[in-house]
Write a structure and sequence with these properties.
By secondary structure, the chain is mainly α. The chain has helices at residues 10-18, 23-38, 47-54, 68-80, 101-104, 109-121, 126-132, 142-154, 181-194, 202-232; strands at residues 45-46, 84-87, 96-99, 160-162, 174-176. The protein contains 10 helices and 5 strands. A hairpin with an 8-residue loop joins strand 2 and strand 3.
């Protein structure tokens, strides 16, 4: 391949993007982690069981309809990223699959459960995560969930992000970052529109804040000048 005209840093950016997961990779990986905890007798998982888990109607956001061939393609990509292993058991007629998130990101079960629920269910508060995590890990309190979230946010690169509070809500929501920040921003906007809210992407919000600050500074300068002129009337 001719790389003479490749901009400096482009290959690094491409390599970084290759580490991000698409929505189907996130779903397959999360189902493997979920079933490892909830149905250990059927783990590692067969292709058929994995397809059924991916297309499950409950405890999934969004609901998907993946074909067997699609899941096979996704498994191949995840294996290349060293996030999935193929297990060929002696005497078994079919290959089985297991995730490697625990090894790749050095996660104990409480952290893995927290991340898995975010991968399966989308944006959630710490309280919602605790309620939904029961079968993967039993948290004694919301504070324990928040400790896990802080751990996942503090990793490098971070695996989880805290979102701004939605209008009318008291608690912040959290989301995984396995698909990158750009994908997270798109999901946040889409989720807001689907719920009837109007949301401005983060970059636009920052630009708006800068504009507001500039306008306020201009108003302060104008008021200062008017006050100085007023004072001169009494000198």
């Amino acid at each position: 391949m001719n790389t003479e005209n490749t901009p400096a840093g482009a290959s690094d950016g491409a390599a970084a993007n290759s580490n991000f997961l698409d929505v189907f990779e996130v779903r397959v990986l999360a189902v493997l982690a979920e079933k490892e905890a909830t149905t250990p007798d059927n783990y590692p998982m067969s292709l058929n069981g994995l397809v059924n888990g991916c297309n499950q109607l409950s405890s999934r956001d969004p609901v998907m309809a993946l074909s067997e061939s699609m899941v096979i393609e996704v498994l191949d990509r995840l294996a290349q990223k060293k996030l999935v292993s193929v297990i060929n058991q002696a005497g078994a007629r079919v290959a089985k699959y297991e995730h490697r998130m625990r090894i790749k990101w050095m996660l104990e079960q409480d952290k893995l459960a927290t991340l898995t629920i975010l991968m399966l269910r989308g944006f959630q508060t710490a309280g919602e995560i605790r309620t939904r995590c029961g079968r993967l890990h039993e948290f004694a309190s919301v504070a324990e969930v928040e400790t896990c979230l802080e751990f996942l946010m503090d990793k490098y690169p971070p695996l989880v992000a805290r979102l701004a509070r939605a209008p009318g809500t008291k608690e912040p929501r959290y989301a995984h970052l396995l698909s990158g920040e750009a994908a997270l921003e798109q999901q946040e906007v889409a989720a807001a529109f689907s719920s009837g809210l109007s949301v401005t992407p983060q970059r636009d919000r920052i630009a708006q804040l800068e504009e507001d600050v500039s306008r306020l500074q201009s108003q302060v300068e104008t008021l200062t000048q008017q006050f100085e002129q007023f004072q001169k009337q009494f000198e």
